[in-house]
Write a structure and sequence with these properties.
Blueprint: H1 6-12, H2 14-29, H3 36-50, H4 55-66, H5 71-85, H6 87-104, H7 127-136, H8 138-151, H9 159-173, H10 178-189, H11 194-203, H12 209-223, H13 228-232
Helix pairs in contact: 1-2, 3-4, 3-5, 3-9, 5-6, 5-9, 7-8, 9-10, 9-12, 11-12
Length: 233
């Protein structure tokens, strides 16, 4: 990672800058299971979840551009997580992203999007999951169908990247039950290894160590011999 941004942090507090640099080296350079692009995208997801849309978000946006994460990629990431992080949180991030691009003369979006299909029907969510949710509340099930359907045509992010993003939301929001199981299963189904999904949770420690701690406990339970069959079948 390029640590040139540490100069900005040092102006705020030199001791914190030293702590931050050591932490960044650990998570950016010593989690080889994730690509740099994945780490940038997950950092942006964390910024949205925690609404750290000032200097941290700005640094992650600039780092993304240095590693091939385009303005269109960033917007698809924000659109994708809006149903889990919440639409207001993503709206705040979109507003801030536009300001950063304008203020710093960064490349803006080209307009790449996807078919929303809001007026369609059905859902790409597996039928067993839809059935369980409909048993809880039919109107909520319709809402979930809409949210999943509106994202089905996204193409800028891979299935693996989308699964890792939703896992990150789960860890930071501590939704470590049904949704976490589904998102881990999606990552495994997309070809991610157990070490790679564990790397996703370890990476979130940068945004809250105790949340990552609980996330690892939940993940290890899912990956254990007693649970693997029921989760990934």
């Amino acid at each position: 990672m390029d640590f040139s941004s540490q100069a900005q942090v040092s102006k705020l507090d030199t001791v914190f800058a030293e702590m931050s640099a050591a932490t960044d080296q650990r998570v950016w350079e010593e989690i080889p299971e994730l690509t740099m692009r994945e780490k940038v995208l997950l950092s942006v997801v964390a910024d949205v979840c925690q609404q750290t849309l000032g200097l941290p978000f700005e640094l992650h946006v600039r780092l993304g551009l240095e590693h091939g994460v385009t303005a269109d990629d960033l917007r698809e990431t924000l659109r994708f997580i809006s149903y889990d992080s919440g639409y207001p949180a993503v709206l705040a991030a979109l507003d801030r992203l536009t300001d950063i691009e304008r203020e710093q003369g960064l490349p803006g979006p080209t307009g790449q999007g996807h078919q929303v299909n809001a007026d369609g029907s059905g859902s790409p969510i597996p039928a067993p999951v839809r059935g369980v949710v409909r048993g809880l509340d039919a109107h909520f099930a319709d809402y979930m169908d809409l949210q999943s359907r509106m994202r089905a045509d996204m193409k800028l992010l891979s299935v693996r990247e989308r699964a890792f993003a939703t896992m990150t939301v789960d860890v930071l929001y501590q939704t470590l039950e049904e949704s976490f199981r589904i998102h881990v299963a999606r990552a495994i189904g997309a070809g991610a290894t157990p070490d790679e999904v564990r790397g996703v949770v370890r990476f979130t420690a940068r945004f809250g160590m105790t949340k990552a701690w609980r996330g690892l406990r939940a993940l290890n339970a899912l990956l254990s011999a007693d649970h693997t069959g029921s989760v990934f079948a």
